[in-house]
Amino acid sequence: MTEQTEQTDAHVWLEEVESERALAWVRERSSASEEGLRGDPRFAQLHGGIQEALEASDRIPLVAQAGDHLYGFWTDADHPRGVWRRTSWESYRTQDPEWEVLVDVDALAAQEDVPWVWQGASLLRPGCDRALVHLSRGGADAGTTRELDLGTGEFVPAPEGFAKPEAKGRLAWRDRDHVYLTTAQDPTGATRSGYPRTARLWRRGTPVEQAEVVHTIPEDDLGLFVHHDQDRSQTVLTRVPAFYREQTLVVTGDGVQALDLPETASVSVHGDKVAVELRHAWRPDGTTEHAPGSLLVAPLAAVLADPTSAPWARLVTPDDRSALVDVTWTAHQLVTTTLRDVRHTVQAHRATADGWVSTDLTDALEIGLRSVSVSAVDDHASDDLWLVTTGFLDPMTLSLAQLVESTESTDGVALEPLRQAPARFDASGLGVTQEWATSADGTRVPYWQVGPADLPLDGTTPTVLHGYGGFEHALTPAYDPIVGRAWLAHGHVHVVAGIRGGGEFGPRWHQGALQENRHRAYEDFVCVARDLVTRGVTSVPRLGTTGRSNGGLLVGNMLTGYPEDFGAIVCQVPLLDMARYHQLLAGASWMAEYGDPDDPEQWGWLQTFSPYHRFDPERPTPPVYLATSTRDDRVHPGHARKMAALLEEHGRDVTYWENTEGGHGGASTAAQWATWHALAWAFLHERITDPVS
């Protein structure tokens, strides 16, 4: 299938990412698109408002604790590429903390003439006097790692210091004189998906060629990943044969031992305990069945010995309305975040001599109808939690939640608000409702509607429908100053659909749109679009849709499969050619989601949702805006390029724009992000707030 498609694909040359011919094609279209959209008088206002929000000095500085300090990454107008910095708890609790800058990415980029983008840092515990700093060129997934001496503020030069050349992979501390190395440039090669397949232990001061092999996986696997708990001297490897399959391996004094657990389960090891989140039903003892979506916990030693006889405790039991979305370990407790009817709830679980005790914290944490993100402040030393809450019309709040076994505080929680972000757009008169539409097979599909509370149901309101529908990712309420300023503040409506393929209702919801059932996600999405029109919220000429990545594939299928239902489409960093996606960059890793085009039976269903092949020259299409990044090394920019060329060839209304850096995110700095978003929203204003009759 791939060879035949390549031979008959007149636009395959656009997959040559940096060829002179392809880049000339990109520059010509990007310049024309930018010139046209910048000419809209609304563009400057959109761009300025978005950049102002992204660079606002009163944003919440999110941090993580390591040792005695709080560390965080920050960008602003003076530091568009950002600074990595730290402060103390005492200072952080003040309105104007004092920060010590550890890495100035802008200065480093200027010094080395490389558009560096921050990828994170790993501190050497317990002293926290060294760090492994991860950077990428232009925001690509492939990156470099360098060792930083926090005492001198200088990178430690080779051969004394650790450094990983540019490639997919990471360095991870084992101790002061050893790191674990994974790199796609390993002598054993990369996996078919382009990720590392070998983990090595590298000793300080020795050539990397002498690094000892810890474990190697087959080339057809997706990748191998390393996690080392420095405080507990515990190393865990995760072998990922494919999406939704993994094998957990514990490095012991006797070598590497695999946990004999279901490969489709998601596993986390924390000290002497193992948590297993099931995607499919499992009977560990051959008798008791645990349903998909359940969370089980058992002692690590018992699981290493024999998981069939381990004393599994079930902490989460799902039903058709709920889904487990996050598991957070603290020093003595396990905290779970679940969705019920796409609304967040939080539970704390504590092991006692009589078994596990669970407490619902939802009311005590004052979540309400907002979304919540929970993370441990220090999972080795305390049960404290970072709590970030947000809603469509509620700016972010950061709190410190202290879990205690017995307290006079409500439900064993002491809640300390730390930061409240200000409003970034005028939300007066706006409201949020949760609605439900009915899909082609009778399934009820939830969606959130944000817009004027007194909306006239006469079909006149410009409306944008957003979706994703893949990889178990759930879309939940979140405050977005970009959507707020660019769209909601104008009195328009924004809708977020929780279609199948996502994680809104657990494994069954995701698996309901896998591979040959992919059409269910698209039927769900269009049923929401039609429900909006039926209810009088909007009309087809005033209905736009947006999607990124897998969401780009979603809206690409609206373009070619349901063009009569939309007035305009914004499709960003998308997959669109499902015949060749598995041959392009990380595409092979997604075959568990979509299927294998080289298998004739699977190509039979893949071609039904491949927009590049589904395009019908005899069928009209709405105006479409396609955007990608030259530096995207995850989803190949050739998808967007070739689709634009195909539409152009048939005289369709297509606007194409490509950023020169930004990776799969699409942009690297606030100024780039402002352009990225302003162009798309200017397009939507032009096409559906002023539709051509």
Description:
- By secondary structure, this protein is of the alpha+beta class.
- Among the domains are: 20-52 and 424-689, Alpha/Beta hydrolase fold, catalytic domain (Rossmann fold); 319-421, no CATH class.
- The chain has 15 helices and 37 strands.
- The strands form eight sheets. Strands 30-31-33-32-34-35-36-37 form an eight-stranded mixed sheet, with helices on both faces. Strands 5, 6, 7, 8 and 9 form a five-stranded antiparallel sheet that branches. Strands 1-2-3-4 form a four-stranded antiparallel sheet.
- α14 links the parallel β36 and β37 (654-659).
- α3 packs antiparallel against α15 (670-689).
- The longest helix is centred in the C-terminal third of the chain and has 20 residues, at 670-689.
- The model has no long low-confidence stretch (mean pLDDT 94).
CATH-level-4 superfamily name of the domain at 20-52 and 424-689:
Alpha/Beta hydrolase fold, catalytic domain
Based on the coordinates given, report the CATH architecture of the domain at 20-52 and 424-689: 3-Layer(aba) Sandwich
Could you name the CATH topology of the domain at 20-52 and 424-689? Rossmann fold
Helix/strand-derived class? alpha+beta
Fraction of residues in H or I helices: 10-25%
Per DSSP E runs of 2 or more residues, the count of β-strands stands at 37
